[in-house]
From TrEMBL:
Catalysed reactions listed for this entry: carbamoyl phosphate + L-ornithine = L-citrulline + phosphate + H(+)
High-level lineage: Bacteria, Bacillati, Bacillota, Clostridia, Eubacteriales
Protein name (Swiss-Prot/TrEMBL): Ornithine carbamoyltransferase
Leader sequence residues: none
Aspartate/ornithine carbamoyltransferase Asp/Orn-binding domain residues: 153-307
E.C. numbers: 2.1.3.3
Length: 309
């Protein structure tokens, strides 16, 4: 805990294997407290500023509720309302917020903007999603998998779809916990080579195997966990049509999932598009754990907030 206090959460790659495991254990511990009705006001009197340059349901609600349940307060700042939306610099915003709040969460487009904010802030900065990564989501995903499978190391996770922020953070996260990950994307939509390279370094330490493929059947074969995400992420709305064509063979449906282990679980960060990246039969079916996954955003982020702030 001590070496995480005051730290930023920009990507999961930045944290060590024991640090990731600590956050997951903290999340389970705090979740159990809440389920037992035991108050856990670790952040009394503390404030989190939340900058949202993109839409959000889960991230906004889970961070705001987390701060409330930890005894603190959260401020929702949209670009329509704050001066950053009228061109005030990221650096100046970071310096001013740091004089008043105890932590800053930001959801935005460029990862470099989060890095710039962190460089100029004197309080912890938490990445609430960029075009490149979504670390808080994947902490919740790992917690969910651990709850349902009892372990993480040695499991096989298959991701089918776009090489986006979700798969980048899954690559980092799986590598840290020793979970094998097979990714299938159409050509031209692969995860970034730089991310794969960094994940490979951790994978060598933990024994995780990473496979970057184009064949969804190969990826899903014998998987314990099947994951997908939207074909067009926030900011890619104009590419929707073209992406629907490119991803047509990458739908997670009954036929594809018949290749997975018979007790596989299905995860999706949500929001989902039924009939596109996943069929209703799968996401609303017996293998799906997406509601546990959404709830776990709250518990995982409480662990992050209580530890970093
Ligand atoms: N999964 C996720 O981050 O959802 P929101 O976009 O609703 O925050
Ligand atoms: N890849 C999606 C995730 C949403 C939580 C997006 O960036 O829009």
């Amino acid at each position: 805990r001590k070496d995480l206090k005051g730290r930023d959460l920009l990507t999961l790659h930045d944290f060590t294997v024991p640090q990731i495991n600590f956050l997951l254990e903290e999340a389970s511990r705090i979740k159990a407290l809440q389920k037992a009705g035991i108050p856990h006001p670790y952040l009394q009197g503390k404030t989190l500023a939340m900058i949202f340059q993109k839409s959000s349901t889960r991230t906004r609600v889970s961070f705001e509720v987390a701060m409330f349940q930890l005894g603190g307060h959260a401020l929702f700042l949209s670009p329509r309302d704050i001066q950053m939306g009228r061109g005030e610099s990221v650096a100046d915003t970071a310096k001013v917020l740091s004089r008043m709040v105890d932590g800053i969460m930001i959801r935005t487009y460029a990862q470099s903007e989060v890095e710039e904010l962190a460089e100029h802030a004197t309080v912890p900065v938490i990445n609430g999603l960029t075009d490149l990564t979504h670390p808080c989501q994947i902490l919740a995903d790992l917690l969910t998998i651990k709850e349902h499978k009892g372990t993480l190391k040695g499991l096989k996770l298959a991701y089918v779809g776009d090489g986006n922020n979700i798969v980048h953070s899954l690559l980092y996260g799986c590598a840290k916990v020793g979970m094998h990950i097979s990714v299938a994307t159409p050509e031209g939509y692969e995860p970034k080579a730089e991310v794969v390279k960094l994940a490979q370094q951790d994978a060598q330490e933990t024994g995780a195997q990473i496979a970057i493929l184009t064949d969804p059947v190969q990826a899903v074969t014998d998987a314990d966990v099947v994951v997908t995400d939207v074909w067009a992420s926030m900011g890619q709305e104009a590419e929707q049509r073209e992406r629907e064509k490119a991803f047509a063979a990458y739908q997670v449906n009954r036929e594809l999932c018949s290749q997975a282990k018979s007790d596989f679980i299905f995860l999706h960060c949500l929001p989902a598009h039924r009939g596109e990246e996943v069929t209703a039969e799968i996401i609303d079916g017996p293998h799906s754990v997406v509601w546990d996954e959404a709830e776990n955003r709250l518990h995982a982020q409480k662990a992050v907030l209580a530890t970093l702030l």
